[in-house]
Amino acid sequence: MKTKKLASLALSLILLAGCATQSRDNSRRDVLTQISTYDALFAGLYDGVAPVKSVEGCGDLGLGTLDRWNGEVFLLDGTYSLVTGDRTVQTITNLNVTTPFLALAWFHEDTRQSLTNGTTYDQLKQKPEAFLPSINMVYAIKIEGVFQHVKTRSMPPQSKPYKVMAELVKTQPTFEFQDVAGTMVGFWTPPSMKGIGLAGWHLHFLTKDRQGGGHVLEFTTKDVVLELNQKLEVDWRLSNLPDYKNAVLGTKP
User: Fold this and answer.
1) Rounded to 5°, angle at Cα 39 from 218 and 31
2) Are strands 31-35 and 233-238 parallel, antiparallel or unpaired?
3) Which residues are bridge partners to 197 per DSSP?
4) In degrees rounded to 5, what are phi and psi of residue 126?
5) Which pLDDT score is estimated for 184?
6) pLDDT digit string (tens) for 42-52?
7) 0.85 exceeded by the pTM?
8) Which residues of 223-240 are buried (b: 16+ CB within 10 A; e: fewer)?
9) 19: pLDDT confidence band, cut at 50, 70 and 90?
């Protein structure tokens, strides 16, 4: 069906080729590129399914993890950082490392709003319509400034046989930050796409001094700006590994 910028879902097997160009490309302005699904990660499929290099040129903002659920990946302005399970931050320079889940996009600010001092993550979760133009769309997100409080997690690399995520998070390493400057990046996935992405808000944090971060569990704002960028297409790259093909994911048709 040929339309003008209707939302589309592109299904493809993961290839070793990256996006068409390796720079900010207007032809991919409205595209979210994603390797595998959050459902697969939730089910314990932590083996890397494609190198990070395979999506080179697909975006400058994003999040994910590395092979064996090793840490939390934070992508901003084209630089990949990894918050490890012991809270240290590393720059990812070897893009041949593989990932079981990675989402990224070119970030072009569409809307911008200051968040009231004391705004909490729970408030964003409970009333997303107060912060988003539409809860039915996909948005790339940047939240930047000073936070009263942030709580994050980051997992160390796992070993087989893998435990499912619901079991691992019971003993997950968590980190807390007070009166901290930094940036959160991530995506809003509408309820209709639950399982493809983490339904709702999915955010990763990195402190301005690069001394910590991780997957965001809680936050309270102090002097913070929320920027949104709507996406109309999803380039969804499925794993070709046997474990993915044989897994029971989501609900049966």
Assistant:
1) 80
2) parallel
3) 194
4) -75, -35
5) 99
6) 999 999 999 99
7) yes
8) ebebbbbbbebbbbbbbe
9) confident
